[in-house]
Fold this sequence. Notes:
The chain is mostly helical. About 80% of the residues lie in helices and about 0% in strands. The protein is built from four helices and no strands. Helix 1 runs antiparallel to helix 3 and helix 3 packs antiparallel against helix 4. The longest helix is centred in the first third of the chain and has 31 residues.
Amino acid sequence: MTKEQLSKGFAYSSLACSLSFWLSGVLSGLQIGMGINIPGVTWLITMPAWTWRLLVGVGLILAIPAAVFRSKLSLVAFPLAILTFLLIEYAMSS
Protein backbone atom coordinates (compact mmCIF):
# COMPACT_ATOMS: atom_id res chain seq x y z
CA MET A 1 0.00 0.00 0.00
CA THR A 2 1.48 3.33 -1.02
CA LYS A 3 1.49 6.56 0.92
CA GLU A 4 -1.06 8.05 -1.48
CA GLN A 5 -3.48 5.15 -1.06
CA LEU A 6 -3.12 5.29 2.71
CA SER A 7 -3.77 9.03 2.82
CA LYS A 8 -6.82 8.65 0.57
CA GLY A 9 -8.13 5.91 2.84
CA PHE A 10 -7.83 8.14 5.90
CA ALA A 11 -9.45 11.06 4.09
CA TYR A 12 -12.38 9.04 2.74
CA SER A 13 -12.97 7.47 6.16
CA SER A 14 -12.96 10.89 7.78
CA LEU A 15 -15.41 12.21 5.21
CA ALA A 16 -17.72 9.24 5.80
CA CYS A 17 -17.79 9.94 9.54
CA SER A 18 -18.43 13.66 9.11
CA LEU A 19 -20.95 13.38 6.29
CA SER A 20 -22.99 10.77 8.17
CA PHE A 21 -23.81 13.42 10.77
CA TRP A 22 -24.88 15.93 8.13
CA LEU A 23 -26.91 13.28 6.29
CA SER A 24 -28.64 12.42 9.53
CA GLY A 25 -29.54 16.08 10.02
CA VAL A 26 -31.02 16.32 6.55
CA LEU A 27 -33.03 13.13 6.97
CA SER A 28 -34.22 14.24 10.39
CA GLY A 29 -35.34 17.56 8.95
CA LEU A 30 -37.25 15.80 6.20
CA GLN A 31 -38.96 13.42 8.59
CA ILE A 32 -39.78 15.84 11.39
CA GLY A 33 -40.06 19.17 9.62
CA MET A 34 -41.80 18.17 6.44
CA GLY A 35 -43.60 15.08 7.68
CA ILE A 36 -42.04 12.77 5.11
CA ASN A 37 -41.72 9.21 6.40
CA ILE A 38 -38.53 7.55 5.14
CA PRO A 39 -38.55 3.85 6.08
CA GLY A 40 -35.36 2.33 7.43
CA VAL A 41 -33.59 5.47 8.63
CA THR A 42 -35.19 5.88 12.04
CA TRP A 43 -32.21 4.16 13.69
CA LEU A 44 -29.88 6.78 12.21
CA ILE A 45 -31.93 9.71 13.43
CA THR A 46 -32.47 8.33 16.93
CA MET A 47 -28.82 7.57 17.67
CA PRO A 48 -27.79 8.77 21.16
CA ALA A 49 -25.67 11.90 21.50
CA TRP A 50 -22.60 10.07 22.82
CA THR A 51 -22.54 7.96 19.65
CA TRP A 52 -22.39 11.05 17.46
CA ARG A 53 -19.61 12.47 19.63
CA LEU A 54 -17.65 9.27 19.26
CA LEU A 55 -18.21 8.97 15.51
CA VAL A 56 -17.26 12.58 14.80
CA GLY A 57 -14.23 12.30 17.09
CA VAL A 58 -13.03 9.29 15.13
CA GLY A 59 -13.58 11.29 11.94
CA LEU A 60 -11.37 14.07 13.30
CA ILE A 61 -8.68 11.62 14.35
CA LEU A 62 -8.74 10.05 10.88
CA ALA A 63 -8.45 13.47 9.22
CA ILE A 64 -5.17 14.22 10.99
CA PRO A 65 -3.06 11.52 9.23
CA ALA A 66 -4.70 12.43 5.94
CA ALA A 67 -3.50 16.01 6.42
CA VAL A 68 -0.06 14.88 7.56
CA PHE A 69 0.33 12.67 4.48
CA ARG A 70 -0.83 15.66 2.38
CA SER A 71 -3.77 14.03 0.67
CA LYS A 72 -5.53 16.31 -1.80
CA LEU A 73 -8.82 15.23 -0.29
CA SER A 74 -7.66 16.34 3.15
CA LEU A 75 -8.23 19.94 2.05
CA VAL A 76 -11.93 19.11 2.38
CA ALA A 77 -11.86 16.32 4.97
CA PHE A 78 -9.89 18.12 7.69
CA PRO A 79 -11.88 21.40 7.80
CA LEU A 80 -15.16 19.47 7.59
CA ALA A 81 -14.10 17.19 10.44
CA ILE A 82 -13.12 20.16 12.61
CA LEU A 83 -16.35 22.02 11.80
CA THR A 84 -18.50 18.99 12.54
CA PHE A 85 -16.62 18.22 15.76
CA LEU A 86 -16.96 21.79 17.03
CA LEU A 87 -20.65 21.85 16.12
CA ILE A 88 -21.26 18.59 17.98
CA GLU A 89 -19.36 19.83 21.03
CA TYR A 90 -21.30 23.10 21.02
CA ALA A 91 -24.65 21.35 20.63
CA MET A 92 -23.91 18.78 23.34
CA SER A 93 -22.64 21.33 25.85
CA SER A 94 -25.61 23.68 25.59
